[in-house]
Structure formats: C-alpha cells, structure tokens
Amino acid sequence: MGEQGRVVPARRRGLADEVADRVREAIFSGVYAPGAQLREVELSGALDVSRGPVREALLRLEREGLVRSAWHRGATVTTLTSTDIAELDSLRGTLEHLAVQQVIAHASDEDIAAIDKAADRMERAGDEHEMVRCDIAFHDAVYAAARHRRLQVAWQAIRSQVHLFLLTRIGADSQGYLAHIPDEHRALVAALRARDAATALDLFATHRRHAFDVLAGTDAADPGEEPDPPDSP
Fold it and tell me: pTM (2 decimals)?
C-alpha cells in the first residue's frame, strides 16, 4: 500500500508545547516586552533544549499572534499596530456581544457565581500583570458560562492576542487600569446576575471602549510597520 490512503504517524510535540508555554508566560509576565527579539540560540540555552523545539514553539506562538517573524529580523514579540488594535476590538466586540446574550439566556446561577469569583480575584492582584491575568480569566468565565462551544473556540483563537492587547494597555496607562478595572468588572457581574441584557451589553461595550480609547490615544505603529525591537533581557 502506497503513502496515499495511509495515516501518517503522529509526531510527539510535548517538548515544543512546553517551550511555547514557557515563552508565552515570559511574554505575559513582561519578561519579553512587545518588540523584544526572541533568539533561538538564547532560548534553547535558557530552557536547556535543542533549537528544534524552540523553532516549533515560536511557530506556534506566531500562529497565536504573539510572535512575528521577518527574514531580516528574526522572531520578535508582536507589537500591535493601530490596525491590529482596531481589528481585535471589533472582533472581540462581536464575540462578546453574543457571549453576553448567551449568558443572560442560558447561564446557571453556578455559572454566574464562577464569573463573580473571577471578579473577586482582581481585588487581590499584586501587580498589573497579575491583574491582566485576572481580567482574561474573568472573560474566560463569561465565555464558559455562555455554553456555546463554537463561541468558546472562537474566543480561544484570539485569547492570546487580547492578552497582548491588555499588556499594551497597561504599558500606556498602568495606574488608570489598576484603579478602575475591578469596579468595572463588578458592574459587569451585577448586570449579568440581574439578567439585564440591555444594561449588560451597554456596560461590556463601555468596558471595551475604555481600553480602545487608551490605545487609540497612543502613537500606535502604522499598519504594516514594525518598530525597532528593544534588546532582549
């Protein structure tokens, strides 16, 4: 029997997965800022692995939107352009609109309690990076409560980029984010618990607009333009 019609044996990718997790976490923790170079040799040495898994991991992170590669520059942490910011905001808004409607219609009291618990964690966040993690976890809980599998898959497809969006926001206005974000999420929980669709949709839209306005007021890179990357730590 020839190759056609046969199932090709799967390759083990556990090590590449772990490297991707480590590098992703380093980006989300601020170790590698937007624009920072991700050099295969340095990463393989730091993680004590060969360059093959590092290369695979960077390709995975590129598919997630966290990394960009260019022949003359290698891999760098994505710097969001003004077009990136606008596209993420509009797509996130569309998904979130449906998620809120689904939560109002289908979420159980236990689902709402899980969203409430995610909001509670924001009160204990130690720094802006932990607050961003809590912010993302809150929205994870909202999408889980929507009980819409394909909607959750769509959220997962942009989740890392939204995390990067929020990291870019705290880079522009860390104090404003820390001061206001817990109360904003408390109001979102209250509207969801009351099953008030109109108020919830309005508050979620206002919540997104605050983040977009902060970034729209910064000097975002022009579409297609990649700024010079800073030195890696």
Answer: 0.85
